[in-house]
Design brief:
3 helices; alpha+beta; about 160 residues; 8 strands; single chain; about 25% helix; two-stranded antiparallel sheet
Length: about 160
């Protein structure tokens, strides 16, 4: 990594940088916890604790989210529907994140973002074909939600 002053930053083990700041990889991606991520890494420090924030383009983020929320092998039309909903959710979170260190988390609490996905051609096609499309209700971003399962409960009418 090189920071914005072009100084090389390295970490060991759990990657503890010598100082906070923006770290940029010459390859445009970095590895952390055995996973590869696109973009840059911002490091924030508060009372000796570090927060790591991945800075990347929306489309790269969506490739990972859609590919981790659904199988990349599913039909492109299904991936496109997920892309629109995931983008809408992200845009809502961005608008709600003013003044925070980051826009959105990377777990099922928000959307699963877990870095680079291999064999991502269908995902990239779905993201490209829905670029900038979001769900709106009465002219505003809709509150969209989705979940992976309902706990196998039956709902009675």
């Amino acid at each position: 990594f090189r920071d914005v002053m072009n100084q090389v930053k390295k970490g060991q083990g759990d990657f503890k940088p010598s100082s906070p700041g923006k770290l940029t990889s010459e390859k445009g991606e970095f590895e952390m916890d055995g996973k590869v991520f696109h973009g840059d890494l911002m490091v924030f420090e508060d009372s000796g604790k570090f927060t790591y924030v991945n800075i990347l383009p929306v489309d790269e983020y969506l490739v990972s989210v859609v590919g981790h929320e659904m199988s990349p092998a599913w039909p492109v039309e299904a991936l496109k529907a997920q892309a629109v909903v995931a983008r809408t959710y992200l845009m809502q979170k961005i608008s709600d994140s003013q003044g925070k260190l980051y826009d959105i988390g990377n777990t099922t609490k928000d959307q699963v973002y877990s870095g680079k996905i291999e064999n991502d051609a269908n995902l990239r096609q779905a993201i490209k074909e829905t670029r900038a499309q979001v769900v709106k209700f009465k002219g505003e971003l809709a509150n969209v939600f989705f979940h992976s399962d309902c706990g196998a409960r039956r709902h009675r009418a």
